[in-house]
Amino acid sequence: MSMKFPSTLALFVIGASAIGFAGCAQQKDAVSLRNEAQLLTNKAEFSRAEELLRTQLAHDEKGYGTDSIEVTPNLDLLGDLYLREGRLGEAETMYKRSVAIKEKNLKPYMMDLSTSLNGLGRTLTARGHMIQAQPVLEQAIQLREENDTTNGVAIADSENSLASFYVGSGHYAEAESLYKQSIAHYEKSIGKGSMEAANVRNNLASLYYVQQKYDLAQPMFEWVLSIYERNLGDSHPDVASVLNNLAELHRHKKEYGVAESQYKQAIQIFEKRPGADTNPSLACILNNQALLYAAQNRNLDAEPLARRAVAIYERSAGASPVAVANALRTHATILSACGRAEEAKQVQEKASRLISASR
Q1: Does residue 32 lie in a domain region?
Q2: For the CA atoms of 122, 124, 125, 129, what is the dihedral angle to 10 degrees?
Q3: Domain annotation covers residue 78
Q4: pLDDT (tens digit per residue) in 241-287
Q5: What is the DSSP letter of 69?
Q6: Could you tell me the pTM of the whole model?
């Protein structure tokens, strides 16, 4: 999201909010529109946010030119939005275009460039492109350390991003150190109860979970959940993500009743939102709940959940081939346990073909 089945994290890692953007300060209407779009993104109202940002991008491209610095705030916010939605290819395109424009105007926009680089690095990490991600993230944090104007907030954002890269690369000690530095920067700058600090604590708790340090992970997840519910309400997707994280922890501790309740709460949140049938986050939780039932030999309960998870992943534009293949393998294992050997074989072969095609 161990958190791996068989090789991908089943927990949700959460990035910090965008830091803000230089340029276009003279256009109050544009700034207000972007602020509204960012609020909508934070509320997971992605379609409305995208419509606003696309409209403003077209307006600025017409007024200033497609390669002007004035268009980059729109590109960065669209990149943030697509990354949140799991539309990783589109996020990468937005950030790369923004980076290219800002590099032409490097000196005046050092911190602004670092925002685009950090977003691009996070996207490359999420896509599993680790060799490409590392230098991008390191460049972003270097620019921020040399040019910080945010009282440490931007540096904390980069530390969180680089730590998540290290988790994906299996360098857990480096990741833990950076997560702790990021939390310290956020708490010093904007307070212990801030959403930004909570996001990083979620990620640190996920790291502890990977290492089976459940006694460290559980209270941290519970603290994050309380912060999210207070700030976002109890029906926000980020609340569902932390519920999934807690459920995964309880599943691996064999506390099946607690885990089942938390999976169901998380699923209910996502099912009430538009686009549930193409949401890879919902598919992930359904797959996890199927694994929970399989662990209890409740394979007849598990099979429809696993089948639905596969169907959602296959419809989702943001799902990675590895995630789809892992869901197929879960389904194949459960079909086999149900005595449906021929179906299981076909599903397993489909998973193998998908992995081979993605290499």
Answers
A1: no
A2: -170
A3: no
A4: 999 999 999 999 999 999 999 999 999 999 999 999 999 999 999 99
A5: G
A6: 0.76
